[in-house]
Write a structure and sequence with these properties.
Layout (H helix, E strand, L loop, with lengths): L2 E7 L11 E7 L8 H12 L18 E4 L2 E4 L5 H4 L2 E5 L6 E3 L2 E2 L2 H9 L21 H5 L18 H5 L5 H12 L7 H9 L13 H4 L6 H14 L13
Parallel strand pairs: 1-5
Antiparallel strand pairs: 1-2, 3-4, 3-5, 6-7
Bound molecules: iron/sulfur cluster, FE3-S4 cluster and FE2/S2 (inorganic) cluster.
FE3-S4 cluster binds next to helix 9.
Length: 247
């Protein structure tokens, strides 16, 4: 089958190309099970080597090829042509500065992520037998979902609150914080909750829900944000939360 790609292009460093414009490419002999990422490679390698996109693993693991495909944030390597049809519109994800074509500057995204202390904190000495810090399966279950994040930014760049205010930490940063706030072995949950109580923290989330269907890892993003909000309201964190009362 033939498939037409309409791609939003821009090169802020080159005069006459600094404004966004659309360009169409037609690919022949496309199989419905071909992936969008492979087709973008074909365009780059067979038709226009100047087309720029970011990708690495090609298997939905590294999170580097998030883009807006037919108006929805996706990883190009996880989407098949049969899922998007014979006309495919591809744009960079929204709310971050475009570096070139489909590549955006992820610096603001990672700055928000770093803000929430996305690392394990525990200053107690390790158990004397040298074994790891243990926790029950139930304790682990509290943050299992948010460990799956690959920092692709599909959630944050689909959030209207983030589009309206780039200072909002965004759902990905909250997911990153959730992973440690609800870890019974961690000791910095209260500090993270303080950070997320700030005006550009969780309360900028208006429960619009775009982030949850955008997540390629099927993380229940809005639910995780709700759990963090509840923890702040209760002035507490970790396993003390009754998760059944959260939804
Ligand atoms: Fe990507 Fe999902 Fe992590 Fe958001 S929560 S950055 S959509 S993997
Ligand atoms: Fe945005 Fe998701 Fe909240 S789309 S407003 S972070 S529920
Ligand atoms: Fe790594 Fe798509 S290229 S997730």
């Amino acid at each position: 089958m033939d498939v037409t790609f309409k791609i939003r292009r821009q090169n802020p460093d080159v005069r006459d190309l600094e404004k966004p414009y659309w360009q169409e490419f037609v690919l022949n002999d496309v199989d419905p099970t071909d992936r969008v990422l492979e087709m973008l490679h074909r365009i780059k390698w067979e038709q226009d080597g100047s087309l720029s996109l970011r990708r690495s693993c090609a298997h939905g693991v590294c999170g580097s090829d998030a883009m807006r495909i037919n108006g929805v944030n996706r990883l190009a390597c996880k989407i098949l042509i049969r899922d998007v049809g014979e006309r495919v519109q591809v744009e960079p994800i929204l709310g971050l500065p475009v570096v070139k074509d489909l590549i955006v500057d992820m610096t603001p995204f990672f700055d928000h992520y770093k803000q929430v202390m996305p690392f394990f904190v525990n200053d107690d000495p390790l158990p004397e037998d040298g074994r790891e810090r243990l926790q029950t399966q139930a304790d682990r279950e509290q943050f299992d979902d948010t460990t799956k994040c690959i920092l692709c930014a599909c959630c944050t760049t689909s959030c209207p609150s983030f589009w309206a205010n780039g200072h909002y930490v965004g759902p990905a940063a909250i997911v990153g914080a959730h992973r440690f706030i609800f870890d019974s072995r961690d000791q910095a949950g209260a500090e993270r909750l303080d950070i997320l109580s700030e005006p550009n923290g969780v309360w900028r989330c208006r429960t619009i829900f775009n982030c949850t269907p955008a997540c390629p890892r099927d993380i229940e993003v809005t639910k995780a944000i709700g759990e963090v909000k509840l923890a702040i309201r209760k002035g507490t964190n970790v396993g003390i939360i009754e998760t059944s009362a959260i939804h």
